[in-house]
Specification:
The complex is a heterodimer of chains A (124) and B (899). Chain A is built from 1 helix and 11 strands, in the order αβββββββββββ. Chain A is an alpha/beta fold and 124 residues long. The longest helix of chain A has 23 residues. The N and C termini of chain A lie far apart (54 Å). Chain B has 899 residues and is of the alpha+beta class. In chain B, a hairpin with a 2-residue loop joins strand 28 and strand 29. Classes of the chains: A alpha/beta (124), B alpha+beta (899).
């Protein structure tokens, strides 16, 4: 095996390792939501993903997520929440609110209809 | 003594019909009429010089109500808010108190009779949105009109958004307005009566734009469809651009294939430098394809990347850019690569982009069809309503109809909102909402459902539910929610799809390495091509869409037939049901007793018997007696008013008709009068054995015969139960009725298992026990008495009637009262799950076979290697196939209708 072959192989394996780390192992930092007038409100931009996508809230206090979809691609047309059994269509450019009061600590996942875009609400 | 400020009459405060406190001063009124007049405009009566009698919001002038002098702190505005849900005198105080506490509110009266709150407030300190919010917080709803307007020619500039919003929000009575520049839609909330659509429209027109009401748009193009169409057109433009460039690029891409290579047509010998020149041109030409047609792949991939995730865009972006970069390096510096491997393939970048974009466009189109059910429902909505206000007949937009309005319906009219008939009668075609094909007779007191169509009669009805509360709006909401929900089967897919794309990337790298290390002489070229092919052929979309697409189509199909499925879970469970438990009364049967048999004794004929029996019951309110009276009227028998009438509770009635003593009742009544029943008791027993309630009739002390009433079965119950048996379901009847009646009904409809004499509170326990045996149990009931059993069952079916759509306890609501809905619900859920599984299996098989072939596993055996272009076509086709397969559900015909 010559040097260039070895280098190519090393780069390839390193890439595989990096993909596994970047997409699976990496732990995202959530953003802590501030409370305004008793409601934990956070605007979420929807464009190829949810921004922010990890939202940390306190339990027992109402949460208001304001989704604003800024793209026309149909993938992100809907947002679905698993535990609270809510979903909403997000017309482009409009702010759509999802409101709920988390009673238990844990994670509430949300995603697009096909599960390609993901985010979660971490309840503390 | 006090003076009524309206009519001037002197009255005793203790006897006043109503009182009002304004600015510390109490006013007393002689009658409701006077107080109503006062509420409309107190200022006139308190300060007779100030007259504000218009209904529109007007400046209550900058003059203080109490002093008559302007206090100079800002402008006072008077507004009249319609409040819904006012059902007690206490409510008035609650609302008044909460509004009084709002800063800037000068004065409040709530008129209980009119259901209106009159508020005078300082515009600088407080606005309408705060006021309505306050009323809402106090627990009441403000009757608001909500309307969608579309800017006709579209917006020209970003600042126009502000201009229009400002102009509209300045219209008095408008609560808020939001304009969406992406869709050119304005949604306006306003208080009907304070302002109207016309005022809003003129406000927009004052800015130089014109608007149409969304509800009036031709063919009901709703927002979603419009968005889909825009997206489709955009994608098609991108496709044509990519295709136009792909063709020449492809024709100059393969010098080694003489018949395909374009220059061969014109030249005998193509020089090396010409080939390179054409490649260089291809390199330049494909860039705009990737930058314009394939733009969303790159922006999407980048956006996903930032979120530490990867999707289809990532794969396509990686695949096409890898092809382009490799080609460019191979062209500029062929020496970098081993001999013979430096072949550019620009065509892949262009053609794959074109194909995938085309696939996306077709998918958008098919998707639009899948959710057509919602659009059909929205199209049902009436656009205007003929309302009686102040004795005048007005045609107003349906959004402005308020609860309590009296609406006129003429033959052929569409009923605009939900309500209750107060005058007139007609038959109404409710098929669009309930799926019931025959028109339903409606009389005074009956409910009518918005969006249904009146046939021949005319009537007036009082609106009970408007806007978001109407049955139609709730149906749309429920269907939308269900379409957006998840079937449990999709959870597995979620897990898969979160690993899918990175795994494909890893496979692509491994493929590259294997070819690179173990390939033949042209290893590097093969390695790149196979890696690119792997990236392109993988189709995460097909996997992700498989279940949701079927669900959307299936739920929509159900809604078309009056079957409302709450969510994906209900649908999946319904498809696996083995046992159906039916409540008897009101579910299998009509739930109302009807006259069924008239058996006269010797010497009497049936008509005479019925005439006396029904006449005797004429004054009785007992449901069984009523059934006999109705039965006689239906048979056109003249009834005679009894001259004496005595109801004996638990026995029957004793009457005198035409000087004859007539008794009708049970055995106890007959014994009391020592009537000899030998002759007719056999008949009575026979009728009772058939589950009917037999009543003896005696005339002048002699037995005259037996009449029987029974709760009769609905006409289509037999058929529906047959279909359920066909579907392989075990059908069980659960009832609180006695064994004999239960068995009789069961025989008529063909049910084999009966659980009779079950107390209402034990129904849930019975269902629980069936579940414990490991059966998947569906329970069908009325949603009120049977609610606990419905909740206990794996799937609860509520037989809904009328406008109560969102029955909490139910997983599936049947809009029509018919059991056929149950059979249909099960059939459609099975068909949907079958469809979803086909999609899922198809998508998995496609990926698990496609990816290895793309990686070249067949090459060592058959020398077969997939071109990345074929991979692109396959990938586009696979996602289109999924959507198309789901669309097949739209044409699904249930057995229930063909049988």
């Amino acid at each position: 095996m010559d040097l260039s072959t070895a280098i190519v192989n090393l780069i390839g394996l390193a890439l595989i390792g990096w993909i596994a780390w970047y997409f699976w192992i990496y732990q995202k930092q959530g953003i802590q939501v501030a409370e305004v007038a008793g409601v934990q409100e956070v605007p979420i931009t929807v464009k190829g993903g949810y921004d922010p996508d990890v939202i940390v809230v306190k339990r027992g206090k109402p949460v208001r997520l304001l989704f604003n979809r800024q793209e026309s691609a149909l993938c992100s047309e809907m947002v679905l929440f698993d535990k609270i059994d809510q979903s909403a269509t997000l017309p482009e450019g409009e702010t759509v609110r999802i409101e709920f009061t988390p009673e238990q600590a844990g994670e509430i996942n949300f995603q697009c209809q096909m599960g390609m875009l993901r985010g979660k609400v971490v309840v503390e | 003594m006090m003076k009524d400020p309206v009519c001037g009459m002197t009255i005793d405060p203790a006897k006043a019909a109503a009182t009002r406190r304004v600015k510390g001063q109490t006013y007393y009124f002689c009658s409701d009429t006077c107080v109503e007049k006062f509420d409309l405009d107190p200022a006139i009566y308190i300060n007779p010089s100030e007259s504000n009698s218009s209904l529109l919001v007007e400046r209550a002038t900058p003059i203080s109500l109490t002093t008559g002098v302007s206090d100079g702190t800002g402008e006072h505005v008077r507004v009249e808010l319609p409040v819904a849900g006012l059902d007690c005198a206490m409510c008035v105080q609650t609302i008044e108190r909460s509004l009084e506490n709002v800063e800037g509110v000068q004065d409040v009266h709530v008129n209980f009779a009119l259901g209106k709150a009159h508020v005078v407030y300082d515009q600088d300190l407080v606005g309408l949105p705060e006021l309505t919010e306050t009323i809402k917080r106090a627990g009441y709803e403000v009757g608001l009109a909500e309307t969608q307007l579309r800017i006709v020619e579209g917006l020209h500039c970003a600042s126009c958004v502000r201009t229009i919003e400002k102009a509209v929000s300045r219209v008095p009575g408008v609560l808020d307005v939001t304009l969406n520049p992406a869709t050119d839609k304005a949604s306006v909330r306003y208080i009907p009566g304070e302002t109207n659509l016309q005022a809003v429209r003129s406000a927009v027109e004052s800015t130089g734009y014109s608007v149409v009401r969304s509800a009036e748009e031709p063919e009901g193009i709703d927002e979603e469809t419009a968005a889909h169409q825009r997206e489709y057109r955009g994608l098609m433009r991108k496709f044509w651009f990519a295709a136009a460039i792909s063709l020449p690029v492809m024709l100059v891409a393969y010098p080694e294939i003489p018949w395909l290579y374009l220059p061969n047509r014109f030249l005998n010998e193509v020089s090396e430098s010409l080939i390179r020149l054409l490649f260089a041109l291809s390199a330049v030409a494909t860039l705009p394809v990737m930058a314009y047609s394939g733009r969303q792949f790159f922006t999407g991939a980048w956006a996903a990347f930032k979120h530490h995730s990867a999707d289809m865009n990532t794969l396509i972006a990686l695949g096409t850019s890898a092809a382009w970069i490799y080609s460019t390096v191979a062209m500029i510096a062929p020496k970098v690569f081993p001999e013979g491997t430096a072949t550019p393939f620009y065509d892949v970048a262009a053609v794959v982009t074109a194909l995938v974009v085309l696939g996306q466009a077709l998918e958008v189109r098919a998707k639009g069809q899948t959710s057509q059910a919602i659009r059909k429902l929205l199209d049902l909505q009436a656009k205007t309503a003929r309302v009686l206000r102040d004795g005048r007949e007005l045609e107003i937009p349906v959004e402005e109809v308020l609860v309590g309005d009296v609406i006129l319906v003429r033959p052929g009219d569409k009923i605009p909102v939900d309500g209750e008939i107060i005058d007139g009668r007609s038959a109404v075609d409710e098929s669009m909402v309930t799926g019931e094909s025959l028109p339903v007779d409606k009389n005074v007191g009956d409910e009518v459902i918005g969006a249904t169509v009146n046939t021949t009669g005319s009537f007036r009805f009082k609106a009970t539910k408007v806007g978001k509360d109407t049955a139609l709006a709730q149906i749309v909401k429920m269907v939308q929610d269900a379409m957006g929900s998840k079937a449990p089967i999709a959870r597995l897919v979620d897990v898969v799809s979160s690993y899918f794309v990175p795994i494909v990337m890893i496979i692509a790298i491994l493929t590259f390495l294997i070819w690179f290390n173990f390939g033949s002489s042209q290893a590097l070229a093969f390695a790149v091509v196979t890696a690119v092919t792997v990236l392109i052929i993988a189709c995460p979309c097909a996997v992700g869409m498989a279940v949701p697409m079927s669900l959307v189509a299936g739920v929509g199909k159900g809604a078309e037939h009056g079957v409302l499925i709450r969510n994906g879970e209900a649908l999946q469970t319904a498809s696996g049901l083995k046992t159906i438990v039916l409540d008897k009364t009101g579910t299998i049967t009509k739930g109302k007793p009807e006259l069924t048999d008239i058996v006269p004794a010797e010497g009497f004929d049936a008509n005479t018997l019925l005439q006396y029996a029904a006449s005797a019951d004429l004054l009785s309110e007992h449901p069984l007696a009523q059934a006999i009276v109705i039965g006689a009227k239906e048979r056109a028998i003249d009834l005679i008013e009894p001259s004496d009438f005595n109801a004996v509770p638990g026995h029957g009635v004793e009457t005198v008709i035409d000087d004859h003593e007539v008794y009708i009742g049970n055995l106890k009544l007959m014994r009391r009068h020592k009537i000899d029943l030998i002759e007719i008791s056999v008949d009575a027993e026979r009728l009772q054995a058939a589950g009917k309630t037999a009543m003896f009739v005696a005339i002048d002390g002699k037995p005259a015969g037996v009449v029987a009433v029974a709760d009769t079965i609905k006409e289509d119950s037999v058929h529906a139960i047959q279909v359920m048996h066909h579907l392989g379901l075990e059908v069980i009847m659960l009832t609180g009725d006695n064994e004999r009646t239960a068995q009789a009904i069961a025989r008529q409809v063909g049910i084999d298992r009966v659980l009779a004499e079950v107390l209402p509170e034990d129904k849930a326990r019975e269902v629980h026990m069936m579940k414990a045996r490991g059966e998947k149990v569906g329970m069908v009931g009325d949603g009120i008495n049977d609610a606990p059993a419905l909740v206990e069952a794996d799937v609860g079916f509520a037989i809904g009637t009328g406008t109560d759509v969102a029955i909490e306890a139910a997983d599936i609501t049947l809009m029509s009262g018919s059991l056929r809905g149950v059979a249909y619900a099960i059939e459609i859920s099975r068909a949907t799950m079958r469809n979803a599984k086909q999609n899922l299996v198809g998508a998995f098989v496609y990926n698990t076979i496609g990816i290895p072939i793309a990686a070249g596993v067949l090459y060592p055996f058959f020398g077969l290697l997939l071109s990345p272009i074929i991979a692109g076509a396959a990938m586009a086709a696979s996602s289109v196939t999924v959507v198309t397969n789901a669309n097949r559900l739209r044409f699904y015909k249930a057995k229930e209708f063909s049988a």
